[in-house]
Design brief:
- With 637 residues, the protein is of the alpha/beta class.
- The strands form seven sheets. A six-stranded mixed beta sheet has the order 8-7-6-9-10-11. A six-stranded mixed beta sheet has the order 21-20-19-22-23-24, with helices on one face. A five-stranded mixed beta sheet has the order 13-12-16-17-18.
- A hairpin with a 4-residue loop joins β22 and β23 (432-438).
- It starts with a helix and ends in a 21-residue tail after the last helix.
């Protein structure tokens, strides 16, 4: 074969091979492009724009960070619908998930006459058995419902203090709901009286650990007023309520507006209570007060549905008849009116009277007239029972011409006198007058209710009772801040000194300790820190120990004087907090001291609402804690 033929054949094969390679290359590129574009479009259409697609020959590589494992699987499925699943190479990653946050621990404790229930989520580190034992002890014989779950996470700061305080508070609250969170306790409760409400709020506030935020929502129910009483007196000098009762806020507003039209001035306490005889109480009271305003002077008294209108002596009979007639026709149903126009007394004839006097020392004297010997013995016995056997002196005489109602009027007057701290009761055939001072805010209302119910309709009485805060055993108590200031004043006059270099209180300072103990007994429960301080002479550690020993010595002296010190702490601060320059003797003397400081709760930052709170309710309060202060000392460290 010739050479040219061989060359021609070889060239033909080479050309064919080249053409095949070119065709194959174009085919691969076409397949890659179509696969990559098709898969990418499909993923984008399904919102998976995070996925990256790259074709490598017949293989399709998927990369990128999928939000979840489910989304990654969906991307593979979507790509498998465009190309053969065997051609897909999965290089996708899953987005890292955040660490699971600890749950918000919280609990609710509910207590009523039916028992105690506790529900919530508490840390596993909390002694669940101990909690249930305390709840069972609080419940007594009543059943306990326990719905507590635990989670194995660390207890947050303030959780144990909050739970412990909640259980302590619940032991004092027969009807309450307590919500607990770390560092926060919300208490909702109801008491039987306003006095108990005030006492309970002060007790719980003092018992709260420092740094715990406490919300107190303690309510006192409206009292049941029996009889439902109101009495307004109007004379030439003033207009005043001896007693004011209303069933609603709107009724109270209506009554007070009518009284102001009659000349009432200043702030008035009108008690909201239950027991109103008619929904039209305020309408009837308003009409009666307006009638009294037209009469000029006199009094109007309501005892349930009985209305007594007494005009002043000298009121024109025609005016009296007209005003009373209009009032009788206008009063709502149920209400019955008794109107009285007193006749002028004979100035030459003194009316018979009985007088009982109560002195500030508690001594009672009975003078005047009584209808018979039995009444004198009865009045004497009643007074001795009410005021003490050794405190009563009877100098009343027996006469024959007294009204049949005299015994009732005398004994009712004595009962009214027992509501006062000191005062006077005068009984005449037409009037019972009670005057004096009291430390009970409700005394005037109680006396008005008593006289209205005991004396009956159309009987006239006068109440001139003054409330004095210094006689009120609750209001007269000094506040914690006042107690702290009074102790500071005592220490400023006479320091608590110690024997040189020791924790033994000097004999000259024992009188100061007596004065401080007397103040603390009056102040009652206080959260108090007794602080010991020294000057800077000597070693720091020695000064710290000495100040602690001296503070403890003061605490022991108070205990020896029978002061309740369960809420007191003794702490030494050594030379850390000087109040004067330690470079001279006067400054060092000032720095050696003992101080008494209230422990005030410290506010915590607010926290967001828990899941349990959204079901059960929540709340918070704040407080703050003093930094260490100084105290008194001796002449040497």
């Amino acid at each position: 074969m010739r050479l040219s033929s061989v060359f021609t054949i070889s060239a033909t094969f080479v050309a064919a091979a080249v053409l095949s390679l070119v065709a194959a290359s174009f085919s691969v590129e076409l397949i890659e492009d179509n696969s990559e574009i098709g898969v990418r479009n499909a993923l984008d259409d399904n919102g998976m724009t995070w996925a990256e697609v790259e074709a490598n020959g017949l293989q399709v590589v998927l990369a990128g960070v999928a939000p979840t494992e489910a989304v990654r699987f969906a991307a593979l499925s979507t790509a498998g619908g465009i190309v053969d699943a065997a051609r897909i190479i999965d290089e996708m990653e899953i987005k890292a998930t955040a660490a699971i946050a600890a749950p918000r621990f919280s609990a609710e404790i509910l207590r009523n006459d039916a028992g105690v229930s506790i529900i919530g989520l508490i840390p596993a580190s909390t002694d669940r058995t101990a909690v249930l034992n305390r709840v069972t002890a609080i419940s007594g014989d009543a059943p306990v419902t326990e719905l507590i779950e635990t989670a194995d996470y660390p207890a947050p700061t303030g959780w144990e203090d909050a739970l412990g305080f909640a259980l302590t508070a619940m032991n004092r609250l027969p009807r309450a709901k307590v919500s607990v969170q770390a560092g926060r306790v919300a208490i909702t409760a109801i008491t039987d009286s306003a006095e108990e409400q005030s006492e309970l709020e002060q007790e719980l506030s003092n018992a709260a650990p420092p740094g715990l935020r406490v919300t107190l929502d303690i309510a006192a129910p409206r009292p049941v007023i029996t009889p439902f009483t109101l009495r307004l007196v109007r004379n030439e000098d003033e207009t005043h309520f001896d007693s004011c009762s209303a069933d609603t806020i709107e009724a109270r507003t209506r009554i007070l507006n009518a009284a102001r039209r009659a000349g009432l001035e200043g702030q008035v306490n009108c008690t909201l209570g239950m027991g109103v005889p008619s929904p039209n109480w305020s309408e009837a009271v308003e009409q009666a007060i307006d009638a009294l305003t037209q009469l000029g002077e006199g009094s109007v008294t309501f005892s349930d549905a009985d209305v007594t209108l007494v005009a002043a002596e000298g009121t024109a009979q025609s005016d009296f008849d007209r005003i009373v007639g209009e009032l009788e026709n206008g009063l709502p149903e149920v209400f019955a009116l008794f109107a009285k126009l007193p006749k002028a007394a004979d100035p030459d004839k003194g009316p018979p009277e009985f007088v009982a006097t109560l002195s500030p020392e508690g001594l009672v004297q009975l003078r005047g007239r009584l209808s018979d010997e039995n009444l004198r013995n009865l009045a004497d016995s009643y007074a001795r029972a009410a005021f003490g056997s050794d405190n009563v002196y009877t100098a009343a005489r027996v006469v024959d011409d007294l009204p049949a109602s005299w015994p009732l009027r005398v004994l009712t007057g004595l009962e009214a006198l027992s509501e006062l701290s000191n005062g006077l009761v005068t009984v005449t055939p037409d009037m019972v007058v009670v005057s004096g001072n009291t430390g009970a805010p409700t005394a005037s209302t109680n006396i008005a209710s008593l006289l209205a119910s005991k004396l009956g309709e159309a009987e006239e009485f006068d109440i001139r009772v003054t409330y004095l805060e210094q006689l009120d055993p609750v209001a007269a108590l000094p506040t914690p801040d006042e107690c702290e200031a009074e102790i500071a004043a005592i220490v400023a006059i006479a320091k608590i000194t110690f024997e040189p270099g020791s924790a033994t209180i000097d004999a000259t300072a024992l009188g100061t300790m007596d004065d401080i103990a007397e103040v603390l007994r009056i102040c009652g429960d206080l959260k108090l820190e007794i602080q010991g301080h020294t000057d800077s002479q000597g070693r720091e550690e020695m000064n710290l120990n000495l100040s602690q020993a001296r503070a403890q010595s003061v605490l022991n002296e108070l205990r020896a004087r029978r002061v309740l010190t369960s809420t007191f702490t003794a702490k030494g601060y050594g030379e850390e907090f000087p109040i004067a320059d330690n470079s001279d003797e006067d400054g060092r003397e000032a720095n050696r001291r003992i101080e008494f400081k209230l422990i005030r709760p410290e506010p915590s930052p607010p926290q967001s609402e828990t899941t349990l709170e959204s079901i059960s309710g929540s709340g918070d309060t704040g407080a703050q804690e003093d930094s260490p202060a100084e105290g008194t000392g001796d002449d040497q460290n």
